[in-house]
Design goal:
This protein has 615 residues and is of the alpha+beta class. Helix content is 44%, strand content 17%. The protein folds into five domains: 95 residues, GIY-YIG endonuclease; 99 residues, no CATH class; 109 residues, 2-Layer Sandwich (Nucleotidyltransferase, domain 5), CATH 3.30.420; 166 residues, UvrC, RNAse H endonuclease domain (Nucleotidyltransferase, domain 5), CATH 3.30.420.340; 56 residues, 5' to 3' exonuclease, C-terminal subdomain (DNA polymerase, domain 1, Orthogonal Bundle), CATH 1.10.150.20. Strands 13, 14, 15, 16, 17, 18 and 19 form a seven-stranded mixed sheet that branches. A six-stranded mixed sheet has the order 4-10-9-8-11-12. It has a three-stranded antiparallel sheet with strand order 2-1-3.
Length: 615
């Protein structure tokens, strides 16, 4: 604020500046008295948009009022279109990191995988710099571990050099250790056909683009052609690469039948931090998980978070799938969709799934975001900080004493089978993992969370009545209906006095027994943070127990993944060999001799299950 300028005069001055702005698209910047940019926005009409900040204060949100009160000057940049303004706003936010915008916590350069197509013998290696040199870049990898795993798979399957020297034909007649071990074609020796080398590079590019089944299909066709031409050594090499590719990819992929190429976004927020996780499916397989952290204000809507995260994830990404699943409609959906379509070169649709497998994909992404956020926040404040949170929680809920033992309940019903409920325990605000328990739900109908919670709490209540240690507070993951199920169980057991609350996601509202209106705790309060930790831990533990106990059924039989093997042939093979392990040990001729199998199916089976390891 200028010396001697009142708040009213400053507001009047800024309103007059807004009236003089051009009625053109562009980006505007609000600047505080110290010259720091505190807010960046974009507009189809700068004049109309900025003038809206100076209407009646009663009509403005709290965030807008605080932003205007902290503003000393307004700057602007005119663009040729609203799309240019949209992108300019994003770049200005990244540059200035304004206080009242969604900002990106981590401003480091994320790594990419670079394929140096400008060289005679292209190399594949990680980099944090993008150059206009004819190379192709895949990323960014916000999870460096995921990038390293990808490179490890590439190096185990494709015999390309890992050295950093620029390769020229005839550079050296002496091969390196990788060449002697068969891990590299050895282009530095000068005896590698550039066309053959380029063909392998194209396979690498398809693999990085997510077209992994296409790569396997081409290798299988090449193997069959080599065998038909009596080039058995070449066929054996291709067979080994097929097996390695199938084995390494199968270790880390989850199959989602019926899905093609799609990304799913999940979001979790706590206070001024939000984490987005992007689950990537290609040809029905989960091929990766990307994570991005952003800073936000408590007033930022979920729509604004979705827009900010999508911009962050896809800003430098080379490939964009035709469908992106989001938990809520983003702000500026038309502009965002047009921008993504322009990057993809084909129509990109933003979808909000309500049910079915696509909704479960979003839930998977949200669960990953929840676990990532819990990792950022730590498992608990610990020590005096945790005790302070329990005291705050007692005050917020009107409890006579701080809850020393808190038990959290959640239900996992992935794909509607094998429903499990979890019980986690926090003592003095810190997880007591040795006290965690799971309940296999036997009586409640599938996908009936309230009834499942009721059954779990009822079974826990029996132990309390039998003299086991009792909690000071129950925390249910859910809303009023889940709370109702827990309440019925407690009342039936005569434990009416035991405090119980439910914490709902999204709005983070606390529902209490006997109260019609939910309690909204401040985002920064220790009481809410403690409830969130209990809720998130119960959710994580429920999923973990569910997946562990269903693991044998989730992982479909290895025979089911072999093309051409159906129920009848699977039965024939198991009757002949007794187990998948013995089928894996069998030779090609033994497999082909099984009635109803034949040589073509035997070759596919032998390749898929590991015949490539035979010598």
């Amino acid at each position: 604020m200028s010396r001697g300028e009142t708040r009213a005069k400053r507001r009047e001055r800024l309103a007059e500046s807004a009236r003089r702005l051009p009625a053109k698209p562009g980006a505007y910047l609000f600047v505080n008295p110290a010259g720091r940019v505190i807010y960046v926005g974009k507009a189809k009409s700068l004049r109309a948009r900025v003038r809206s900040y100076f209407g009646k204060p009663a009509d403005l949100t709290a965030k807008v009022r605080r932003t205007v009160e902290a503003t000393h000057d307004i700057q602007f940049i005119v663009t040729r279109s609203e799309m240019e303004a949209f992108l300019l706003e994003y770049n200005l936010i990244k540059e200035h990191r304004p206080r009242y915008n969604i900002v990106y916590r981590d401003d480091k350069r994320y790594p990419y995988v670079r394929v140096t197509l400008g060289e005679k013998f292209p190399r594949v290696f990680p980099t944090r710099r993008i150059e206009d040199d004819g190379s192709r870049y895949f990323g960014p990898y916000t999870d460096v571990g995921a990038m390293r795993r990808t490179l490890s798979i590439l190096r185990s399957v494709f015999p390309l050099p890992t050295c950093s020297i620029r390769l020229e034909e005839g550079m050296s007649e002496r091969g390196c250790l990788d060449w002697y071990l068969g891990r590299c074609l050895g282009p530095c020796r000068g005896d590698v056909d550039p066309d053959e080398y380029r063909a392998i590079v194209e396979e690498v590019i398809r693999f990085l683009a997510g077209k992994r089944e296409d790569v396997v299909g081409k290798l299988e066709r090449d193997m069959t052609r080599a065998a038909r031409d009596l080039r058995f050594e070449d066929a054996a090499k291709l067979r080994d690469r097929i097996f390695s590719l199938r084995r390494t990819v199968a270790k880390q992929h989850v199959s989602i039948p019926g899905e093609g190429n799609v990304d799913a976004l999940g979001i979790e927020r706590l206070g001024r931090t939000a984490i987005g996780v992007l689950i990537q499916l290609r040809n029905g397989r989960v091929i990766g998980r990307e994570r991005l952290e952003i800073g936000c204000t408590p007033e930022d809507s979920e729509s604004e978070l979705v827009r900010g995260l999508l911009l962050g994830f896809y800003e430098s990404r080379e490939t964009v799938p035709p469908d992106i699943l989001v938990p809520a409609e983003p702000a500026d959906p038309a502009l965002l969709g047009a921008w993504l379509t322009g990057k993809a070169g084909a129509k990109v649709r933003l979808r909000i799934p309500k049910r079915g497998r696509r909704r479960r994909l979003v839930e998977m992404a949200e669960e990953n975001a929840s676990v990532a956020l819990a990792g950022e926040a730590g498992e608990g404040a610990g020590g005096e900080g945790a005790l302070t949170e329990t005291r705050e929680l007692a005050q917020a809920l009107g409890l006579p004493d701080p809850p020393r033992r808190i038990e959290g309940f959640d239900v996992s019903t992935i794909q509607g089978t094998d429903t499990y409920a979890s019980m986690v325990v926090f003592e003095d605000g810190v997880p007591a993992k040795s006290e965690y328990r799971t309940f296999r739900i036997r009586e409640a109908p599938r996908r009936d969370d309230p009834r499942s919670i009721e059954e779990a709490v009822r079974r826990r209540s029996r132990r309390i009545r039998a003299g086991w240690v009792a909690p000071d507070l129950l925390v249910i993951d859910g809303g009023p209906t889940q709370l109702g199920g827990a309440t019925r169980a407690l009342e039936a057991a005569g434990l009416d006095a035991l405090p119980v609350v439910a914490l709902a996601k999204r709005e983070e509202l606390v529902f209490r027994r006997g109260r019609t209106e939910p309690l909204r705790l401040p985002r920064e309060s220790g009481a809410l943070k403690l409830l969130q930790r209990v809720r998130d831990e119960s959710h994580r533990f429920a999923l973990r127990a569910h997946r562990r106990r269903r693991g044998g059924r989730i992982a479909a039989s290895a025979l089911d993944e072999v093309p051409g093997i159906g129920p009848r042939r699977r039965r024939l093979l198991l009757e002949r060999f007794g187990s998948v392990a013995r089928i894996r040990e069998a030779g090609f001729e033994e497999l082909a001799a099984v009635p109803g199998i034949g040589r073509q199916i035997a070759l596919a089976l032998w390749t898929h299950l590991g015949g490539a390891e035979e010598t």
